[in-house]
Amino acid sequence: MIFPMESKPAIRDELLAHAPWLRRFALSLCGTIDRAEDLVQDTFLLAFTHLDSFQPGTNLAAWLVTILRNRFRDQYRKRQREAEDADGHYSRTLNSQPEQSARIEFAEFRAALAQLPPQQRQALILVGTTDLSYDDAAARCGCAIGTLKSRVHRARARLIDLLAIDSTDDFGPDRTTRAVMANGRNSAWQ
To answer: Which is higher by pLDDT, 189 or 10?
Structure first.
């Protein structure tokens, strides 16, 4: 790639003459020599590639400082969104369950919920998905609180039967998926 600088050695030399104090300024911003050097290199790369946007006769040093400061801010914002994980320990703990089984389980749950008698379904939904107390839910259903509690209990028992839930291990991923995910966390190749 041929930079436009090659045809203008005087401007190139003037840009490079600002390198020492740009390095000092970058070091004051970054705090580390490596990051400061990278920032100065990025600044010169942007200056070289966008030289046509520089207005001759204006302050070249101010233009370079503006590029450097804007590049530093961009890098700072990017680092704020990133989590430092040099040894990969944190990333090994991040596992997501496959969505396919959750969608199937949700479809099965909706089908089982639809099989409940309307009064039990309404009681279960009011108590399980809203912030209503049993008293408020009973008032909304137009029944006594004991009746509402009985409907909720029967609805839950019926769902357990319909969904063939034997224990709390039946919630979430199946045993095979849990084993694969646990093995992936413990393996050395990740």
So the answer is: 10
